[in-house]
Design a protein that fits this description.
- The chain contains 12 helices and 2 strands, in the order H-H-H-H-H-H-H-H-H-H-E-E-H-H.
- It is mostly helical.
- The chain has a two-stranded antiparallel sheet with strand order 1-2.
- The radius of gyration is 27 Å and the shape is flat.
């Protein structure tokens, strides 16, 4: 009965390889809402108290913390990715409504599953390291080792999707900022005067160099830029905009397509240059609503 309940309730998206006979199954069952279980006919109401006693038992706290971490990782990943994917797909992707929702679901599922899997690996390794230490306590290197293994297993192996790349780049950027703050904290090896100068000027220099670099790369080495960033920059700086105006009962889509053959004609070159520079208009309408 528990195996059947596991198959019907547990989301196999993030635990696809766990056999129904494993110890994880009853633990996951315990976390399902008791009233839901009773309504499904699997657990009588009088067992709710016993389930609560097991869930609150300190002996199971470490194991249940792993499951709760996986649950929270899945939930957080879905909350973060779904609205982002929904907006980006409907703004910049073509295709049928079914195809768009398929892309949204796939990205959301991957983000949620990866965060849940990482949380499971991280908490499991932390538990094993703590249980094997001499004093039974968490040591300083434990978090680094657990994160190292989880990061490699979930985000480091195989062909990486754009979702994985975005997650890793997001984390890397935060790590760099945190290390920069650590380097100028009081009590460090950096002299006070130099620390104050770095604190006051580091961010302006960082922001300016970042934008200078990305604009240079986009202009001269565009193939090296991440596709979504390149698409956004192309939309802003190179191509005529796709204007969508909501009209009563229908969508009016105005698509301006500029042909750019390799003709070498001066007129064609001049026309294309106007669009590349995004600096030509002849009225308020073509300034704000429709490229020309």
């Amino acid at each position: 009965m528990i195996a059947d309940l596991y198959d019907r309730i547990v989301m196999k998206a993030w635990l696809p390889s766990v056999p129904s006979q494993s110890v994880v199954s009853p633990v996951l069952v315990l976390l399902v809402d008791h009233v839901t279980l009773s309504n499904l006919g699997y657990f009588p109401m009088f067992l709710n108290r016993s389930i609560d006693e097991i869930v609150l038992n300190p002996q199971f706290a470490d194991l249940l913390a792993i499951v709760k971490g996986a649950r929270n990782g899945f939930t957080y990943g879905a909350k973060i990715r779904f609205p982002h994917a929904l907006v980006m797909v409907f703004l910049f992707r073509s295709g049928t409504l079914r195809e768009k929702f398929k892309i949204i679901f796939k990205a959301t599922l991957q983000h949620a599953r990866n965060l849940a899997t990482f949380a499971t690996i991280y908490k499991t390794v932390m538990l094993l390291l703590r249980s094997t230490s001499s004093d039974g306590k968490e040591a300083n290197p434990h978090t680094f080792l657990a994160g190292l293994l989880g990061g490699y297993m979930v985000f480091g192996r195989g062909i990486q999707s754009s979702v994985n790349q975005q997650i890793v780049i997001y984390v890397f950027a935060r790590v760099v900022l945190a290390l920069a703050r650590m380097s100028v904290q009081k009590g460090g090896a950096v002299p006070r005067e130099l620390r104050e100068r770095v604190t006051n000027n580091a961010w302006p220099a960082f922001a300016a160099l970042s934008w200078a670099s990305v604009m240079w790369l986009y202009r001269w080495q565009p193939e090296t830029i991440q596709p979504s960033l390149k698409s956004s920059m192309k939309y802003m700086y190179d191509t005529p905009h796709l204007i969508e105006m909501l009209l009563p009962g229908q969508w009016l889509v105005i698509v301006l397509h500029i042909s750019a053959p390799n003709s070498g004609l001066h007129a064609d070159h001049h026309l294309r240059q106007r669009y590349v520079d995004s600096n030509h208009w002849d009225s308020f309408r073509t300034l704000l609503l429709q490229n020309k």
